[in-house]
Design goal:
This protein has a domain of 135 residues: Nucleotidyltransferase, domain 5 (2-Layer Sandwich). 39% of the residues lie in helices and 12% in strands. It has 12 helices and 8 strands. The strands form 2 sheets. A 5-stranded mixed beta sheet has the order 6-5-4-7-8, sandwiched between helices. It has a 3-stranded antiparallel beta sheet with strand order 1-2-3, with no helix packed on it. A hairpin with a 4-residue loop joins strand 5 and strand 6. It is elongated and about 65 Å long. The two termini are 31 Å apart. The structure holds zinc ion.
Length: 340
């Protein structure tokens, strides 16, 4: 189905009820052939009457004798286990796809009419949906750089200030840096890919580059020693110069990735104010998705993101790994209650 919405109102008019939303999702994920999420069978399932509030939504039971389980298009994907209507999920996905800098949980919650906690949960699940599932190798000319994301030391409460917060790449100083390191690979006229990494050592950075960049590609980095090891596999250009003072020779520069960092940082600071290191990768993925689909129309971008809805499911447990189980259970109950 091709569609083009000029406004969010048009979008909401089109997705007027749950049935339309389910049928839309089926067309995007199944292409006309229902797939059982439990056993993967594509044998035509039995149609059954849906239970619950919406009885007109398409609902099935697997026709494989060994399986025989009920399912809908929501089962097994990022929309599973949530009592929030699919309409609201799709609206949230649309709002995120068309926004230039992302939407804070608070704003999202207000827009789609859920609690802030639910908004936070939906936002993170949708972000997981924006992660590339089968990324191809980057090739051609690739600019590589790292950056540091985190709060400024001068804005911290006295008890939380760190003594030497100056950005440093040496190992013994890194422990005191409260910032998180992000490695970025940007293919000229192509995609960007970013990784939250524990440090800037060669043993950390180089394996990531080797699995993401095609051999014999041309890579451009700054003079950081860790990158020198890549010479065996790539044609390596090292651009000297420190942050803020670039000397560029023709196309030997890392301006694109530097530009990307400023978009990322402005987005994170401007929209989200604070991102905990634990969740930073997903924010990075959201921004990368936005950059990588920059030539698409807003509707194409939305359609593209929905395709991943069947993968990348993110549970509350994965979202909050540091919370002890009893507390998590309590919180989960609360979040579940708001989802209902
Ligand atoms: Zn089955």
């Amino acid at each position: 189905m091709d569609f083009a919405f000029k406004t969010i109102t048009e979008f909401n008019d089109y997705f007027k009820d749950e049935k339309t939303c389910y049928e839309f999702l089926e067309s995007r994920l199944w292409n006309g052939t229902p797939v059982c999420p439990h056993c993967g069978s594509i044998k035509t399932p039995y149609k059954v009457k849906a239970r619950g509030k919406f009885t007109d939504i398409p609902s099935y039971r697997c026709s494989e004798r060994a399986c025989d389980l009920p399912f809908t298009v929501r089962t097994g994907g990022i929309f599973e286990g949530s009592k929030v209507e699919l309409r609201k999920w799709l609206q949230a996905a649309y709002e995120i796809s068309i926004s230039k800098k992302g939407i804070s949980s608070y704003e999202l919650a207000t827009r789609i009419g859920v609690s802030q906690k639910t908004g936070w949960f939906i936002n993170h699940r949708l972000r997981a949906m924006l992660t590339e599932t089968n990324p191809e190798l980057l090739s051609g000319t690739i600019e590589i750089d790292e950056t540091f994301v985190g709060g400024k030391n001068k804005n911290r409460h006295v008890s939380k200030k760190v003594k030497r917060s100056k950005i440093s790449r040496t190992l013994d100083e890194k422990i005191e840096i409260p910032k998180t390191v992000v490695l970025g690979l940007l293919q000229r006229d192509g995609k960007v890919r970013t990784f939250v990494v524990p440090n800037t050592q060669g043993v950390t950075l180089n394996p990531i580059m080797r699995v993401n960049v095609e051999t014999n590609s041309r890579i451009i980095t700054d003079g950081w020693t860790a990158y020198q090891e890549l010479k065996d596999q790539y044609s390596h250009v090292s651009v000297k110069g420190t942050v803020g003072s670039y000397i560029t020779y023709g196309d030997q520069h890392t301006n694109n990735i530097e530009g990307y960092w400023s978009i990322l940082k402005r987005g994170i600071v401007g929209t989200f104010h604070f991102v905990s290191p634990q969740h930073l990768q997903r924010y990075c993925d959201e921004f990368a998705h936005r950059y990588n689909t920059r030539s698409q129309t807003l509707d194409e971008r939305f359609g593209e993101s929905i395709k991943n809805a069947q993968n990348n499911r993110l549970t509350y447990r994965v979202l909050t790994p540091n919370i002890p189980d009893p507390i998590r259970k309590e919180r989960y109950k609360k979040v579940k209650a708001t989802l209902e």
